[in-house]
Structures are given as structure tokens and as C-alpha cells.
Amino acid sequence: MTDQPSRTPSTRADLGKDPARVSGMFDEVAAAYDRTNTVLSLGNDKLWRIATTRAVAPRRGQRILDLAAGTGASSVSLARSGAEVVAGDFSAGMIAEGKRRHGGIPNLSFVEADATALPFADEEFDTVTISFGLRNVNDPEKALREMLRVTKPGGTLVICEFSHPPAALMRVLYRFYNDRVLPIVARAFSSNAAAYDYLNESIRDWPDQRTLAGRMREAGWDQVAWRDLSFGIVALHRARKPATPDQA
Ligand SMILES: C[S@@+](CC[C@H](N)C(=O)[O-])C[C@H]1O[C@@H](n2cnc3c(N)ncnc32)[C@H](O)[C@@H]1O
Asked: Atom 9, ligand 1: which residue's CA is nearest?
């Protein structure tokens, strides 16, 4: 969820969203990834995952794509329902770490998959979900269209992503945390604090709740709605793929 530092110093400016460099960064941090998330989010990551799992509402018999799944922390809670879960990510390092940790779960598989060119057939999944991933994708609009393509008509999309607190006071506090506290905590956990510029700036540059909802609609998603978590530090967007006329 938080984007952790690579050992080769890189800043938001030089990292850009170049896919090779983004996946390289995640390859390098895979082993310590989940623990650092919990520290940097002050434990809120657990609550965000619970809310996301509830929004997905996985059920046995369903096929679910957890995209940009990283080491599979979110995928595991989806798989507990008995649903067939595919954890897709374009970082070979994250996928390898996920397989090492969760390889024994029979209804959970890990697949190398680029969100902008998914290696899946049309209408394969009942639900597609992506947590703290869309912001890192170099072409999020293309990813939204790809997610629509692989979802069954009437199927669901759930996006959990950092967002912008609507209340002014909370925005100020959050900005202070990201600008002043996060770099100090990051330095305590990592030798490369510079990459936290990427996390901070990517959150700042990311569209607000309403704008993301508009982009989802433009990509073809229907019934778009969202709810704020932790005062809007994170937003949970939901949408439905329009049903074909004979299903409507
Ligand atoms: C911040 S991590 C989130 C991981 C996980 N979903 C979680 O909630 O902990 C972002 C993930 O997005 C992946 N990612 C970024 N761009 C991607 C793309 N174009 N296709 C697939 N995965 C991508 C990265 O490799 C990384 O594992």
C-alpha cells in the first residue's frame, strides 16, 4: 500500500511512473513490504483491508482478480471465503514473495500481470479489485478499461486507494504527517528516504474522490459510488459493469 524505498535512490521526479522502474522498486522491497505498511499507516492498513474485503463480498463459486496484489495480503482475506482468487502483479519480486508466503492456499494463485495489458480473457471475473495499486500504474485509464474487459457483465469493481480528506483540518494534519513525519519514520525503517518522495507526491498528485469516480465512468463503469475511510485518507470506490441487454 505504501510505496517503499528501493535501495538505489530514486525520487518521484526520476522514477516517474516508468513501469520497469516501478516494478523494480517493488521487487526490491517485497520482503519488508507488509510490515512497513503497518508502521507507516499506524495500523490503519488492517481496517482498510477489512473494509475492502467487505465491499468485494467474496463468495465461494466466484472468480476474483486482485490486481496489483503485491505480496497477496489482500488476496488472502478474499480467498478465505472459498472464492477462486487470482493475485496479479507486474513485479516478479512481489509475486515470488506472495508465492513463498501463501503458495499453499489451493484457491489462491499468483500471476504476473500488467494492469494495462491483462493476460486474461474477456469477462473472466465476477469481481476485480485493486488496493493501493491504481495510483502506481503508468496509465490508470487504460487499466480501468482492461479491468472492465475482464469483468463479467453485471460484475463489480472495488478500488481502495489513498485519497484526499474532504475536511480542511484533516487535510492539514494529513499533509503535515506526509511531509514531516513520514520521512522520519521512513528513515528509521529504510536506508533510502528519497523514495518516500514518490509516495508522498504520488498521493498529492492523485485525483480526488469525485474525479476518480468520473474517470471510472469514462472508462465504461456504471453505478459508481465511493465512501471515505479514515476521514478520506483512503477512499473505497465501487462500480458495476453494465449488464448485457438480456441480463438487464
Ligand atoms: C503499493 S503496492 C500495493 C500492493 C497490495 N495491493 C497492497 O494493498 O498491499 C502497489 C503494487 O502495484 C503494483 N503495480 C504497479 N503498477 C502495476 C501495473 N501496471 N500492473 C500490475 N501491477 C502494478 C506494484 O508492483 C506493487 O506491488
From this structure: 1
- Helices 182-189 and 33-40 cross at an angle (nearest 10°) of 150
Q: Tell me how far apart the alpha carbons of residues 179 and 104 are, in angstroms, rounded to a whole number.
A: 40
Residue nearest to atom 25 of ligand 1 (CA): 91
Q: Where are the alpha helices (DSSP H) in the chain?
A: 12-15, 19-29, 33-40, 44-56, 73-79, 92-102, 140-150, 168-176, 182-189, 195-205, 209-218
Give residue-wise pLDDT tens across range 186-195: 777 665 566 6
pTM of the model: 0.88
Are the C-beta atoms of 168 and 178 separated by less than 8 Å?
A: no
Q: What is the CATH number of the domain that holds 129?
A: 3.40.50.150
Domain that holds residue 206: 19-247
User: Is 154 part of any domain?
Assistant: yes
Cell output for 97:
514473495
